[in-house]
Q: What sequence folds into this?
């Protein structure tokens, strides 16, 4: 029965029972069923009204509060959602769905420790489904408890091998542990499941190019922490030629861009980061002409986005990553004044971040080789959690700051 037919059917029952002043169990469930049909039609006000009517009939039945909690969560009214789900548990302590929903809300409000507690309770009360383990893995990742995150996402994949998001999450965990071999394997699994998603190929392209850069860098005979780390990464790819992985990266990023162009028609309308990344791959590979072309395309693409948003909406709709991406594009094109202008926008808006600090370091080293200013911003980024593994490859930050890091080593200023 379609939801519209269900609404008509249960409306007749409700009208009939209400005319008899018969507040019985049948009327209660008629309100619940019609409320669910309204919810499925995204008519949340009408759905909430029916669930509240059900509470008037039987305030001790948990299902009404549960459905009101779902509506509140859909509307991002998380405080009210928490109240409803806690009421469900008060009435039915074994309700594993309520614990699961509380876990989802806690993830939304970034209370990850509480989220873990609720997901664990959902599991202990019998909800041992893939989605619980997946969302618990998300909580563990947010808390940087990567070993536990890996166990949880493994459990999710064991239960459901058809969800590409599960492989993406595990791929990212492997990346955080600098396990590029397994990360690539999981990205490949996600692509097999959803070959039409350009973002999956985009991510695999970056990973392939990172491996290529590390293999190439690992043959350097210099004595540096970065070269040692490049060799660690390359150990899983012994005997491989870096050109192979650049070629694989090129194939994936081209496929991703082709898909974006087919969706948006105009090549200048696609996500600027795609051109930026292809340019970074080509530059790392030594194909400078191809790299510059893509950086120019990235610049045009981001200008298109900039023009579409009026000045009065700019601060609301343009996230910090927009200005940081613009700054990075201009750094690649040696347009230092424009790069700094975009960095200063973020600085003046107090949008401080590890990424902003790092790009200031890239700016000062690329433009002036100013060691003191570069080190000031680099140390700020490091204190905020910047991982020096990001300098091992020369795709992004490493392109600008590898030589600075060598200078730090030369001056015996490495204290980490």
A:
């Amino acid at each position: 029965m379609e939801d519209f037919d269900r609404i008509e059917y249960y409306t007749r029952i409700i009208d009939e029972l209400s005319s008899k002043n018969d507040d019985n169990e049948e009327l209660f469930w008629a309100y619940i069923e019609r409320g669910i049909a309204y919810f499925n039609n995204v008519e949340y006000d009408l759905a909430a009204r029916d669930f509240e009517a059900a509470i008037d009939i039987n305030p001790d039945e948990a299902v009404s509060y549960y459905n009101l909690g779902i509506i509140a969560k859909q509307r991002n009214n998380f405080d009210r959602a928490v109240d409803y789900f806690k009421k469900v548990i008060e009435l039915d302590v074994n309700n594993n769905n309520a614990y699961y929903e509380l876990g989802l809300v806690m993830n939304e409000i970034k209370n990850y420790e509480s989220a873990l507690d609720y997901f664990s309770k959902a599991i202990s009360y019998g909800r041992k489904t893939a989605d619980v383990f997946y969302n618990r893995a998300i909580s563990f990742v947010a808390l940087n408890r990567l070993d536990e995150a890996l166990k949880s996402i493994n459990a999710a994949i064991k239960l459901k091998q058809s969800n590409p998001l599960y492989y993406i999450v595990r791929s990212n965990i492997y990346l955080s542990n600098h396990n590029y071999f397994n990360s690539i394997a999981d990205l490949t699994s996600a692509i097999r499941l959803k070959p039409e998603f350009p973002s999956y190929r985009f991510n695999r392209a970056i990973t392939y190019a990172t491996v290529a850069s590390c293999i190439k860098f690992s043959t350097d005979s210099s004595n540096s922490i970065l070269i040692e780390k490049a060799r660690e990464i390359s150990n899983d790819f012994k005997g491989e030629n870096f050109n192979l992985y650049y070629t694989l990266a090129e194939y994936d990023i081209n496929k991703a861009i082709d898909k974006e162009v087919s969706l948006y028609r105009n090549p200048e309308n696609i996500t600027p980061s795609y051109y930026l990344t292809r340019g970074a791959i080509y530059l790392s590979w030594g194909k400078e002409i191809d790299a510059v072309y893509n950086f120019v395309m990235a610049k045009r693409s981001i200008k298109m986005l900039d023009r579409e948003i009026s000045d009065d909406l700019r601060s609301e709709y343009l996230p910090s990553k927009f200005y940081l991406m613009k700054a990075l594009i201009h750094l690649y094109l040696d347009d230092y004044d424009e790069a700094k202008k975009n960095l200063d926008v973020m600085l003046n808006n107090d949008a401080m971040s590890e990424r902003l600090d790092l790009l200031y370091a890239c700016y000062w080293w690329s433009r002036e080789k100013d060691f003191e200013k570069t080190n000031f911003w680099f140390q700020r980024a490091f204190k905020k959690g910047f991982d020096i593994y990001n300098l091992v490859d020369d795709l992004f930050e490493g392109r600008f700051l590898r030589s600075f890091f060598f200078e730090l080593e030369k001056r015996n200023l490495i204290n980490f």
Summary: Residues 310-317 have pLDDT under 50 and may be disordered. Residues 361 and 398 are 11 Å apart (CA to CA). The chain is about 75% helix and 0% strand.
